[in-house]
Amino acid sequence: VNAFTTSLPSRPISTKLSSSTNNQDVVDAAVVSSRSSFLQKVMKDTTIAVAASAAVLSTASASTPAATDNNNNNNSGKQLNLSDEELAKIITADMTERSFLVSADLTRSVYSESSTFQDEIDTYTIDKWIVGTQRLFVAEKSKVDLVGDVNVTPKEVTFKFREDLMFRIPFRPVVTLSGTVVLTRDEESGLIMKYREIWDQSVGDVLKTAKF
User: What is the mean pLDDT of residues 47-69?
Assistant: First the structure.
C-alpha cells in the first residue's frame, strides 16, 4: 500500500495514519473519478498526510462507470426561456439557501444536461460535478457567501462569492477563497450551458490558507 505522507511546516502531522485511519477518512473512490484533479491538487499542495491504497486510487475510474447523458437533446422538465428576473431569483436561492457551490444542491431544471462545469482545476460533466462536489466537501461545515447581486442577461449569469471549504479528507482542512461564477446561457432555450468558476487567488495561494 502506498501512502501520500508529508507534513506541514507549521503543524507536523504524524505519519502513523496508515494504521489508524478509519473508513470516513479514506478518500471515496467516486471522488477520484469525478473531481480527481481537484482532490489530487489539494492532497499535493497542502501536503496533507493521506493514507490511501494505491490500488483503490488506480482502479477507481474503472470501478465507477462514467455518467451517461441520455437527455442531451431532451428538454423535458426544463424551465425554458425564463426571464432574467426569474432566473436571478433561482440562482440567488441556490446560493443563499442551498449553498450549491459546496452542496451541489442546484436547480437542475435551469441547466442543460450537456452543460459543463469548469473550476480552476478541471472541467466536468454535470453529473460528475454534482457527485464530486457532494463527496469532496463537507457542506454543513463549509460556508458560502453571495457577494452582491446575481446579474442576469439573455447571454449569461454572473455573481461573486466568498467561501470557506472543508474537504472530506483526513484532518478536514478548510481553505478560503473568493471569486466569480459565470454561467453561459443557450440563446434558444435560455438554459445554462456552461459553468465557469474564476478564483480571485491563484490555486497555490488558496491552498496556503488551509487550516486544520
Answer: 35
